[in-house]
Automatic annotation (TrEMBL):
The keyword DNA-binding applies. It comes from Thermalbibacter longus. GO terms for molecular function: DNA binding. The lineage of its organism: Bacteria, Pseudomonadati, Thermomicrobiota, Thermomicrobia, Thermomicrobiales. It comes from the Bacteria. Residues 77-125 form the Helix-turn-helix domain. Keywords: DNA-binding. This is Excisionase family DNA-binding protein. InterPro entries: DNA-bd_dom_put_sf, HTH_17, SinI_DNA-bd. Pfam families: HTH_17.
Length: 146
């Protein structure tokens, strides 16, 4: 089993992805029940709900072929790491920082962004887009276009 460190992206090959797909199907059939870990000597422990939810999300992401990185919540990111998480260019992210859209702090001449703040921004943007789409749908329905 390869060693994994913070921020290092984990991706899987086709064979592993197939096995992870089996785990994902097992999760779907479990209807929200918690999974158990079985130790080398047969001892069992039920996963706490927080770990169960995290594991389920990791399985879902890996099953669709995307990579996963584990980053502590209080982690600070570089501008490039933050841009990568938002799927935007570094230059665009810096404009967001300069406009005050996302808080940051300076470490020498480098900007650092708290992961919490970045995820708050991402949630706000998602909610704004959702409201905009809902409004467009409502207007389309009123006009008989939808």
């Amino acid at each position: 089993m390869p060693a994994v460190s913070e921020r290092e992206a984990i991706s899987v090959d086709e064979r592993e992805r197939s096995r992870i797909g089996e785990i994902e199907r097992l999760y779907r059939r479990s209807q929200g029940q918690r999974f158990r870990l079985v130790g080398p000597e047969g001892q069992e422990i039920e996963l706490p709900e927080s770990l169960n939810a995290l594991f389920r999300e990791i399985v879902r992401i890996l099953a669709r072929g995307d990579g996963v990185a584990v980053v502590p919540v209080h982690q600070e990111l570089t501008t490039q790491e933050a841009a990568d998480l938002l799927n935007v260019s570094r230059q665009y992210l810096i404009r967001l920082l300069q406009k005050g859209e996302i808080p940051y702090r300076m470490v020498g001449t480098h900007r650092r962004i708290a992961l919490d703040d970045l995820m708050d921004y991402k949630r706000r943007r998602y909610e704004e887009r959702r409201r905009g789409l809902d409004e467009l749908t409502r207007m389309s329905q009123e006009m008989g276009l939808y």
